[in-house]
Amino acid sequence: MSCYVTAADAPEAFGRIAGVRIKADPTESLHRFKQREIAAVFGRCPRKLFRRALELGAGDGYTSTLLAEYVQELVCTDMNPRRLTGIDTDSVAFRILDAEEVGEQFSSGEFDLVYSSSLLEHLPDPGRALRGIHRILRDDGISIHLMPNRLWKGTTVLLYMPNRLLTSVEKLLIAATPSSGRTHSTRRPPYGGNNLKLARRKQSFLTKQFLPRTHGVSGNTLAEFLAFGKARWVHEFQLAGFRVLAVKRVAFSSGYRFGYERVRRVLERLGLYTVSAYILCKQDAQSPLATHLLP
Ligand SMILES: C[S@@+](CC[C@H](N)C(=O)[O-])C[C@H]1O[C@@H](n2cnc3c(N)ncnc32)[C@H](O)[C@@H]1O
Question: What is the DSSP code (8-state) at residue 186?
């Protein structure tokens, strides 16, 4: 019997056994979400469309296994060596890299695709990274950046208290059951945070009770809500010399691993999504690759 159940199955599971997980496993749910991201963005691309691609802020590198389908040679990078532990293959090379320094680390025009998911909001100076990307991108290349949007921020604030409650119940169940739950930790793996270039911010006791920590580098919840707006990112991309070809709706996720798949599908059908993909090419340039990516 599996001791991993989603919240959608929870009532049944509560009746059957105690000590199970209520929320989805962090790694499994992250990887499932990455599959959906890649399918939403690259689903219509032919195999091995891109000759040489770069992924920035790749985390554990799982996405590289999915991107490899569309890319002949991939350089998969992250700044955190504890997180990016992949071993090079014929088509994927792993490298530790600060995304803000990307422009100094590769040759001009070396890549026809530069990709990131949930990275730019973690950079204190995303403009520097974007100018670097512009330099190393071929003139007819494409750059794609996925990021949480304002609906994501609002959702994480609204669901913060329900999530705390659910997490506490899960911990109690695991503690009350000597054998079943302990094979799965409720904690995320000890990778360190996502905002690698900032000291971890302290939250006041009161704020902690009602509001989630900020996800990216913004100083507080309101600043983050504003920073996650589309107009802000379009402006950043234009300043770095890019043209925004499309802002694609990618997927809905609360970020809390509740696992309500059916609810998620309904919300997506209603046009609600929490992750946006910005598809860019250089200003004054055309990219034949874009035809496979645009909605
Ligand atoms: C939210 S995670 C996203 C990871 C992965 N892209 C994914 O979608 O699962 C943000 C990642 O950005 C990385 N990161 C933060 N600052 C970075 C920097 N300056 N340069 C490169 N990577 C950075 C973190 O180590 C982390 O792996």
Answer: S
What CATH architecture does domain 26-152+209-292 belong to? 3-Layer(aba) Sandwich (3.40)
Ligand 1 centroid distance, CA of 55 (Å): 10
- The rounded Å distance from CA 161 to ligand 1 centre is 26
User: The whole model's pTM is what?
Assistant: 0.89
Partners of 76 in the beta sheet? 55, 94
Whether the CB of 99 sits within 6 Å of ligand 1: yes
Point out which residues pair with 126 in neighbouring strands: none
Percentage of the chain beyond pLDDT 70 is 88
Ligand 1 atom with least separation from CA of 100? 19
**Average pLDDT of the chain to the nearest whole number:** 89
Q: Name which residue sits closest to atom 11 of ligand 1, judged by CA.
A: 57
Residue nearest to atom 22 of ligand 1 (CA): 57
Which amino acid type is present at position 163? N
pLDDT tens digits for range 153-186: 999 999 999 999 988 888 888 787 766 544 445 5
Computed on alpha carbons and rounded to an integer, the radius of gyration of the chain in Å comes to 20
